[in-house]
Amino acid sequence: MSYVLIIHEVDEYVVWKKGFDQASDLRKSAGEIEFQILRYEDDPNKVVHFSKWRSLDQAKVFFESEKVKEIRSELGVKSPEFIYLDELENGVL
Known about the structure:
- 37% of the residues lie in helices and 42% in strands.
- By secondary structure, it is of the alpha+beta class.
């Protein structure tokens, strides 16, 4: 399975989250299967978006598209760090 970990700061979490939610159909049609949103304990505007994708190629095309770059800019995303990951193993303890 393919995953993307994105760490970024946003101007205002509430504004970012509203835009993130509005883009759910766009993300789904691009290949996102599921996601988690996490925040830093000491900084509510530092966001981690962890998501499962059908393929890393689909994820890269999506996140590097001009449309998504524009959306990020409109939502106040600052310097996102993208980490593309292939699953090796998972389990439940």
